[in-house]
Amino acid sequence: MVLQLDTSLIKDWDGYKGRPFLISGPCSAETEEQVMETARELAKLNRVSIYRAGIWKPRTRPNTFEGVGISGLKWLRNVKRETGLMVATEVANEKHVYEALKYGIDMLWIGARTSVNPFTVQEIAEALRGVDVMVFVKNPINPDIELWIGAIERIAKAGIKRLGAIHRGFSSYEKTTYRNQPNWQLPIELRRRIPDLPIICDPSHIAGAREYLHEISQKAMDLNFDGLMIESHINPDKALSDAAQQITPNELKELLSRLILRNASTSDPRLLDVLGELRQQIDVFDDHLIDLMEQRMKVSETIGRYKKENNITILQSARWDEIVKRVMILGKSKGLSPELIDSIFRAIHQESINRQMIIMNNGIEDHNGHK
Ligand code: PEP
Ligand code: MN
């Protein structure tokens, strides 16, 4: 299902300075001096649309810096007065919304620990009813696209028109290179489901370390994201939160200068012709893949019926092992990455097991009319 929300084009938003729509500023407002200094440097770049700073900080453990609270809102108001930058902060309950609006904050974002909770998102939505402010909804910490879309819908229903999503990666149990796994397929699916919704990538919270910021930003641009939210601090190593992932305004400038921006589409008729033909070829191959999968599943179901009749367990570990080894070698010889082969065959195997389970447990009719 494709959703049509009543959102306005990002290029018409206050402060828009071209793609990428750039939101930058410290993870947290710490002191008036740090907030003002960082803002002055960022304003000089002439690329930043919105200045961000967290005032109320959701921290994993208590007794860590939890934000300066309302005094930070005054500093943000001063940033706006002095630099002309639009200003933004995170809100996690209705009180935050009222306070932020009182101080003329231009953009509010809902953090990953808040967007997981429909009660809280609804409370925030009620507080926003009838207000014209920019709002971004970060993805929930768990990779659940419906929960993310649900939070966006709640805010849209409150009448917010300048509404967007922020992709900040997803928490996982496994230790990975990045702090949060990007799971790019989720923002891609979000784009498919709500085509007009602006999507911003937050490389800082995906990376967790400044060395990865550029590669993640480049990837987001290549995937046609509308903008970036990158944490910047006048003295990153001394930051009271997220020190390892913050960069100075100068480093941000350098990162931006290395970003390659490609066009989302072309109007060159010759190129369109070539692309059209190649896309038809892709469709033909995709049809083949689907047909092959259908045939493979029919064979698995037949095997399932033999297993049932002969009282054999569905999962035959040795056989699965043999399949994995064989396809990995074959895939490698064709230049296909082990990740691709692994994920495709895992999914196919799971589907075979599901189908054999149905046959085993219910003996329900399969599509050939066999019991
Ligand atoms: C932040 O932007 O500083 C923040 C707390 O983000 P997230 O909700 O993505 O963790
Ligand atoms: Mn942060």
Brief write-up:
The protein has 371 residues and is α/β, with parallel strands linked by helices.
Structural account:
The chain has 371 residues and is of the alpha/beta class. The chain has helices at residues 32-45, 70-83, 94-102, 118-128, 145-157, 185-193, 203-207, 213-222, 249-257, 269-309, 317-333, 338-362, and strands spanning 21-25, 48-52, 86-91, 107-110, 134-138, 163-167, 199-201, 227-231. Strands 1-2-3-4-5-6-7-8 form an eight-stranded parallel β-barrel, surrounded by five helices. Strand 4 (107-110), helix 4 (118-128) and strand 5 (134-138) form a beta-alpha-beta unit. Helix 1 (32-45) runs parallel beside helix 2 (70-83), helix 3 runs parallel beside helix 4 (118-128) and helix 10 packs across helix 12 (338-362). The mean pLDDT is 95. Phosphoenolpyruvate is lined by residues 27, 54, 58, 111-113, 138, 168, 205.
List keywords for this structure.
single chain, 371 residues, alpha/beta, eight-stranded parallel β-barrel, 8 strands, 10% strand, elongated, binds phosphoenolpyruvate, binds manganese (II) ion
Layout of secondary structure:
Elements: E1 21-25, H1 32-45, E2 48-52, H2 70-83, E3 86-91, H3 94-102, E4 107-110, H4 118-128, E5 134-138, H5 145-157, E6 163-167, H6 185-193, E7 199-201, H7 203-207, H8 213-222, E8 227-231, H9 249-257, H10 269-309, H11 317-333, H12 338-362
Parallel strand pairs: 1-2, 1-8, 2-3, 3-4, 4-5, 5-6, 6-7, 7-8
Bound molecules: phosphoenolpyruvate (PEP) and manganese (II) ion (MN).
Manganese (II) ion binds at residues 27, 231, 241-242.
Structural class: alpha/beta
| Mean pLDDT metric | 95
**Which radius of gyration do the C-alpha atoms yield?**
25 Å
% residues in beta strands: 5-15%
Distance between the termini: 34 Å
Helix count? 12
Distinct small-molecule ligands in the complex: phosphoenolpyruvate, manganese (II) ion
Helix content: 40-55%
Task: Report the principal-axis shape.
Answer: elongated
Number of strands: 8
Oligomer: single chain
Biggest β-sheet: strands ordered side by side in the sheet: 1-2-3-4-5-6-7-8
Which regions are unreliable across 5 or more consecutive residues at pLDDT < 50? none
Order of helices and strands: EHEHEHEHEHEHEHHEHHHH
Largest sheet: 8 strands, parallel, barrel
